[in-house]
Design brief:
11 helices, alpha/beta, 13 strands, Rossmann fold, 6-stranded parallel β-sheet
């Protein structure tokens, strides 16, 4: 039996299409990392203890769990969160093989993003199977693991499953600029990002700037800076992607939105110094490393916001079927 785990809303969004295609015996564990954001279905749930450092909580929750690995032949973890690494380590300690979905993404900078870059590289070091969104990601895995004598290294390229959620949407260009900002490396300068964003919104009244505010206190405490931006509560995923499909372009520090916006033919200003999703840079995404650079990036994208007929580099909307086939093939090995 395969155990599939997730801890956050983005992780659920990316494994849910796979579950719809999966025919082999499986169970789903929710670690509880995003307990304040609605998530999907699960068979078992862990509970995050109130650790002094929140990053410790996933590891403590897995260490305190009982029987979740019973009868499990291998474990699938998605992405690069503390939940993903904690579950991968729990499996590794029990000599259960780990399959990593969305493997091979790299910024090659442990501070950007922190702590995700370390987490995903560590999962790579212990995983048996690596399911990669792109060929570029697969080459990263082969470069890192291929020199270590991994004769049975299993690397697959499937596309990113997040795109499978978007195939029924018809992109249009409206007058809304959709914004999300939440990443840990931006917390220290979140106020500066908000100040820059609000100034742009104030001088562009022909556009509507909408920001679903992340619940993290380090984001919430700066919301009063935003006078000309429409600040709203976090949206259900279905509503958010519909808005994304109809917006003019996006401003975000989210990895998932870089993928989703590209599939929906929208450009994205990426508010980060580095990104692990380099395939879309230039055609679909523009990197903006500081709040001071946001006005220039905005003017550039606002003038030239259409993408044209370029293919999305992250997937074609059929990745989940390929992932299910990989899991079923690996299942036969156990």
């Amino acid at each position: 039996m395969i155990l599939l785990s997730y801890g956050t809303r983005p992780e659920w969004i990316k494994i849910q299409p796979v579950l719809e295609k999966l025919t082999i015996p499986h169970k789903v564990v929710f670690t509880g990392q995003h307990e304040d954001i609605a998530v999907g279905k699960y068979d078992e749930r862990l509970h995050f203890p109130d650790c002094e450092n929140r990053l410790d909580s996933a590891f403590a929750a897995v260490a305190a769990s009982k029987n979740i690995f019973d009868g499990v032949n291998y474990v699938l973890v998605q992405g690069d969160t503390s939940s993903a690494l904690a579950m991968a380590m729990g499996a590794y300690h029990r000599r259960i093989k780990v399959i990593h979905l969305e493997a091979g993404l790299r910024s090659y900078n442990f501070e950007h993003p922190y702590p995700e870059e370390f987490y995903r590289k560590t999962i790579t070091s212990i995983a048996y199977g690596h399911i990669c969104p792109t060929i570029y990601n697969a080459k990263n895995i082969e470069k890192e693991r291929g020199h270590g004598g991994d004769d049975d290294l299993q690397v697959f390229v499937t596309g990113n499953t997040v795109c499978d959620n978007l195939i029924d949407l018809t992109p249009e260009y409206g007058n809304e600029v959709l914004v999300t900002l939440h990443r840990r490396e931006n917390h220290a300068r979140m106020e500066a990002w908000f100040v820059a964003l609000d100034a742009i919104a104030a001088t562009n009244p022909d556009l509507t700037f909408t920001l679903p505010l992340h619940p993290n206190p380090n984001v919430q405490k700066h919301k009063d800076v935003l006078k000309s931006v429409n600040v709203v509560e976090p949206m259900p995923y279905e509503e958010f992607i519909k808005r994304l499909s109809k917006c003019k372009f996006a401003i975000s520090d989210s990895g998932g939105i870089q993928e989703e916006s590209a599939f929906l033919r929208k450009k994205c200003i990426v508010c980060r110094e580095h990104t692990e999703r380099t395939e879309g840079l230039g055609a679909f995404a523009r990197l903006c490393g500081s709040p001071e650079g946001l006005p220039f990036a905005f003017e550039s994208v606002n003038r030239d916001y259409e993408v044209g007929d370029l293919a999305c580099p992250y997937g074609d909307g059929e990745a989940s079927g390929r992932v299910a086939q990989v899991l079923e093939m690996l299942h036969e090995d156990f």
